[in-house]
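SAMPLE LOG
Freezer: B-3
Tube label: C17
Construct: single chain, 397 aa
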Amino acid sequence: MRRQARFSQIGELNTISRVIKLLLVIPTLDRSGAEKQLTLLATRLPRPDFSVHVAALTRGGPYALELAAAGIPVTVLNKRMKCDPVAYLRLRSLLRELRPDIMHTWLFAANAYGRLAAGPRPAFPIVVSERCVDSWKTGWQFWLDRRLVGRTARVVGNSQSVADFYRDRGVPAGKLAVVHNGMDSPEIPATARDDVRRMLGIPAESFVVGYVGRLARQKRVTDLIWAFELIRVMHEDVYFVIVGDGPERGRLEQFSDSLQIEGRVKFLGHREDAQQLLPAIDVFWLASDFEGLSNSVMEAMAAGLPVVASNISPNRELIDDGKTGYLVPTGDRVAFAQLAERLLLDRTLALRLGAAGRARIASEFSADRMVDAYSRIYHDMIDSATASAAKGASCAE
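STRUCTURE (predicted):
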């Protein structure tokens, strides 16, 4: 009888098909790259297989509305300071209430709070998303990452560069995985270019370079303004559109004013419709020192724009140099200007590179591919947990 009961228990573990309860934890639901990927994932995981709940440590944001519209519950934990014991206890309470099958955390604060709240022996697998080559982290942050890796089933980088970065900092290779960001290729109306330019006050026949992203020092936007000034000296009818905000905005605006090109450089600030502005741009620039896998580059490629970007490892995963865009040495202002001018003078080349980039996003970096990759990771986690439970039941006999 005991033998029959044991095999009956193992059979139930192996054959019962049930919905996977998934808890996604992230610091905020603001309009930013990681938050966008989480929302795409949460809203597109197959409902017959997954029941999704999202927790935001600090606040909600625009993506909370999208999640709610898709019927996905969102809990905001109202974290008020860097080390907030009240928010920590709220997260522990949420874990007891939801009893998730898997918790998936995103970005440093959520990765830390989530693994700490789950305890030294989590009752469920924990998947951690690392989104950037995080050279900004200090010693205590890397120390905490190492301390918590034992509680982690998978550390997922959004590029091979990110995975390599964390392998070099002590994450075992067997716990690492790579899931590239996913992106939809939007339909672009034939009139979009002229319509957006009219809204921005840019003549229809002008040449426009653009940047979308945070205005922070590592983005090297100063280099791009210098490069634009080199182009403007040779070609009068050119504009530089900068979409985004951040700590460097004031300094960048002053720098632009000092070059007396403020009428040609348009600082648009943070825009909820940033992706809809891309058809107004002829060439997209990204000069960053470091990235994870740039959502803004992917959005530009998906919109059919040729991209000129710094030659760093994550950008090499997106851009096939000379075929879907160009890669230039970090900090090389002249190269940014020269390649943009090449595309200004050769519109056939620009259109060919843009079309190839759009095709690459659709075939290799689609949102569906991203969702499928995470779904496989989650199912592997459940299969491993089921096998462990079966082994434990067997040993108990």
